[in-house]
Amino acid sequence: MSDSALGPLRERITTLDGQLLTLLAERRRLTNEVAETKIKHHIPVRDVKREEQLLVRLIREGQKVGLDPHYVTQLFHVIIEDSVLNQQAMLAERANPGSTLPLNRVAFLGDKGSYSYLATQKYFSRRPGELLEIGCQSFSEIINKVEHAEADYAVLPIENTTSGSINEVYDQLQHTQLSIIGELTHPIKHCLLVAKSTSISKIKTLYAHPQVFTQCSHFLAELGNVEVKTMDSTSSAMLTVSELQRDDVAALGSEAGGNLYGLTAIKSNLANQKENHSRFIVVARDPVVVPLQVPAKTTLVLSTVQKPGALVEALLILRDNNINMTKLESRPIPGNPWEEMFYIDVDGNLKDGHMQNALDNLRKITRYIKVLGCYPSEEVSPTKVAAASALDQA
């Protein structure tokens, strides 16, 4: 089919795309009105039962017009997630009057194109005010920027589904008075990025952040005799390859980040685990108030007395108060050999009675305990439809 024959079809598709965007914008405005009602009447953000009913109805209606149930489900998972996160952001803003800034100065690791940069863009896209990006070369520099009021917020990677926890960030949290005020999970899609047309067999030197090398260890093993050079950030790796302009060097990073440096991806999906995600935390000088309608997480750091079963005793307090622990991380206490601090993430709001009771009891049995932050949870679990497979065959 010639371009002249495709032209009218493409024009119709372009028109429909524009209409879809207009409808999605209208839907988002309506969900913001829903948020206003929830604020007024103290209604939780999520109504899982209604979401399930909505999705079942949409799957059935989609089948009537020839749309695959899986396609409809995936599409509305994204729409529902967007609605939930926007409503949470609105409620959080109302619960923290005066916290909205005309300019958000945000410190993060690396420069434009790094995964921390992309996470920063994603998180603050839902927040009012302009964004001023402050790239840093180390986690300590990021923390110092906020502590000394040179930045309002910091975005820090805390764990990855492939390489695990980022211990250096936990070590920084031991020594700062900053509070965790938010989180987000960002997909990590590593690509082999080059500045000049080449093939994988020609690559002799590879640049990347150490965490990226860990996450792509299987791919590195396949490459064989390639020199690996670690960089302080993914953006530094991409900048180096861009400046070298050689066909025997490459960087590991995201395709979106590589585009900012004029790099091309010649191989994608390099991580050991194809579902590779990093969790980031957002920290600031002052804590935030999380409305009870919004799903919340609380992060604690504590040290136990030196006796058998001390940690188990602390964890039983969480269980007895029906508090779900989502993460437990231990880190050594500098200067105290064989003693450790425990970082604990739980599903819970500091304003909730169960959390207050648990903290009161933990203070009685621990040597040290500190709340690092209570913040909205941005892990929006997809709406599940048990009958989806049956609908698929209807």
TrEMBL record:
<feature type="domain" description="Chorismate mutase">
    <location>
        <begin position="1"/>
        <end position="91"/>
    </location>
</feature>
<dbReference type="InterPro" id="IPR045865">
    <property type="entry name" value="ACT-like_dom_sf"/>
</dbReference>
<dbReference type="InterPro" id="IPR002912">
    <property type="entry name" value="ACT_dom"/>
</dbReference>
<feature type="binding site">
    <location>
        <position position="47"/>
    </location>
    <ligand>
        <name>substrate</name>
    </ligand>
</feature>
<dbReference type="InterPro" id="IPR008242">
    <property type="entry name" value="Chor_mutase/pphenate_deHydtase"/>
</dbReference>
<dbReference type="InterPro" id="IPR010952">
    <property type="entry name" value="CM_P_1"/>
</dbReference>
<dbReference type="GO" id="GO:0046417">
    <property type="term" value="P:chorismate metabolic process"/>
</dbReference>
<dbReference type="GO" id="GO:0009094">
    <property type="term" value="P:L-phenylalanine biosynthetic process"/>
</dbReference>
<feature type="binding site">
    <location>
        <position position="10"/>
    </location>
    <ligand>
        <name>substrate</name>
    </ligand>
</feature>
<dbReference type="GO" id="GO:0005737">
    <property type="term" value="C:cytoplasm"/>
</dbReference>
<feature type="binding site">
    <location>
        <position position="27"/>
    </location>
    <ligand>
        <name>substrate</name>
    </ligand>
</feature>
<feature type="binding site">
    <location>
        <position position="87"/>
    </location>
    <ligand>
        <name>substrate</name>
    </ligand>
</feature>
<dbReference type="InterPro" id="IPR036263">
    <property type="entry name" value="Chorismate_II_sf"/>
</dbReference>
<dbReference type="InterPro" id="IPR036979">
    <property type="entry name" value="CM_dom_sf"/>
</dbReference>
<comment type="pathway">
    <text>Amino-acid biosynthesis; L-phenylalanine biosynthesis; phenylpyruvate from prephenate: step 1/1.</text>
</comment>
<protein>
    <recommendedName>
        <fullName>Bifunctional chorismate mutase/prephenate dehydratase</fullName>
        <ecNumber>4.2.1.51</ecNumber>
        <ecNumber>5.4.99.5</ecNumber>
    </recommendedName>
</protein>
<feature type="domain" description="Prephenate dehydratase">
    <location>
        <begin position="105"/>
        <end position="285"/>
    </location>
</feature>
<dbReference type="InterPro" id="IPR018528">
    <property type="entry name" value="Preph_deHydtase_CS"/>
</dbReference>
<feature type="binding site">
    <location>
        <position position="83"/>
    </location>
    <ligand>
        <name>substrate</name>
    </ligand>
</feature>
<feature type="domain" description="ACT">
    <location>
        <begin position="299"/>
        <end position="376"/>
    </location>
</feature>
<dbReference type="InterPro" id="IPR002701">
    <property type="entry name" value="CM_II_prokaryot"/>
</dbReference>
<comment type="function">
    <text>Catalyzes the Claisen rearrangement of chorismate to prephenate and the decarboxylation/dehydration of prephenate to phenylpyruvate.</text>
</comment>
<keyword id="KW-0584">Phenylalanine biosynthesis</keyword>
<keyword id="KW-0456">Lyase</keyword>
<comment type="pathway">
    <text>Metabolic intermediate biosynthesis; prephenate biosynthesis; prephenate from chorismate: step 1/1.</text>
</comment>
<feature type="binding site">
    <location>
        <position position="38"/>
    </location>
    <ligand>
        <name>substrate</name>
    </ligand>
</feature>
<keyword id="KW-0963">Cytoplasm</keyword>
<dbReference type="Pfam" id="PF00800">
    <property type="entry name" value="PDT"/>
</dbReference>
<dbReference type="GO" id="GO:0004664">
    <property type="term" value="F:prephenate dehydratase activity"/>
</dbReference>
<dbReference type="GO" id="GO:0004106">
    <property type="term" value="F:chorismate mutase activity"/>
</dbReference>
<dbReference type="InterPro" id="IPR001086">
    <property type="entry name" value="Preph_deHydtase"/>
</dbReference>
<keyword id="KW-0028">Amino-acid biosynthesis</keyword>
<dbReference type="Pfam" id="PF01817">
    <property type="entry name" value="CM_2"/>
</dbReference>
<keyword id="KW-0413">Isomerase</keyword>
<keyword id="KW-0057">Aromatic amino acid biosynthesis</keyword>
<keyword id="KW-0511">Multifunctional enzyme</keyword>
<feature type="binding site">
    <location>
        <position position="51"/>
    </location>
    <ligand>
        <name>substrate</name>
    </ligand>
</feature>
